[in-house]
């Protein structure tokens, strides 16, 4: 994966950041869990990896500044699995509001909140609308682009899924194949639509998933991943371009 060092705030000095802000650079604030289970075959920082990648895509295309990934968020569906942590929704909203407020105070022209989660979408959307009604901040949802939706529909062989499944595993096979342990991938029991908080131990639960996946990651391939990543890249560039338009 590429690492855009010149655009990463964590690797710059404060005066270099000040110069970039004064020149009109947009801010990218990525959201991606650093400690959230992703089955037996993907690392717990899978969302963080995807957030870093998406931020690099946008920063490279638009010369934007990338702030460090917000690695803790509202992820209540996964806390029954060891290591997975979640903030309360209220705390997550408060933290995000404070970070956006800090960027506003430094007179950043545009703020792009790049979100790799699902449960984080409603609270992040609410914060962006409440804190910055002027449209200074924009909420970009990694999995919500039209090209990605179309590509997933075309490629998917699983009958259900949304977490550490065929699609997410394929994407990781393209982004960070060295971290994927396909020999450990396990399909979850088919319980239909996403049943809510997943359950690792109670086989009678409609949310039972002993592996932590929801879907069938055994169907994942690098070729599917390359196509999914290409679709996400174009979607993210389009979303960012729309957000950075004057008056948007």
Question: Which features does this protein show?
Answer:
4 strands; single chain; alpha/beta; 248 residues
Mind explaining what this structure looks like?
Helix 2 crosses helix 7, helix 3 packs parallel to helix 4 and helix 6 crosses helix 7. This protein has a four-stranded parallel sheet, with helices on both faces. The protein is globular, with a radius of gyration of 18 Å. It is an alpha/beta fold. It contains seven helices and four strands, in the order αβαβαβαβααα.
Low-confidence stretches: none
SSE ordering: HEHEHEHEHHH
Arithmetic mean of pLDDT:
94
Strand content is 5-15%
- Work out the radius of gyration: 18 Å
Biggest pleated sheet: 4 strands, parallel
Order of strands in the sheet with most strands: 2-1-3-4
Helix/strand layout:
Blueprint: H1 14-22, E1 27-31, H2 46-62, E2 65-66, H3 89-105, E3 111-115, H4 121-131, E4 137-141, H5 146-155, H6 166-175, H7 222-244
Parallel strand pairs: 1-2, 1-3, 3-4
Helix pairs in contact: 2-7, 3-4, 5-7, 6-7
Brief digest:
This protein has helices at 14-22, 46-62, 89-105, 121-131, 146-155, 166-175, 222-244, and strands spanning 27-31, 65-66, 111-115, 137-141. With 248 residues, it is an alpha/beta fold.
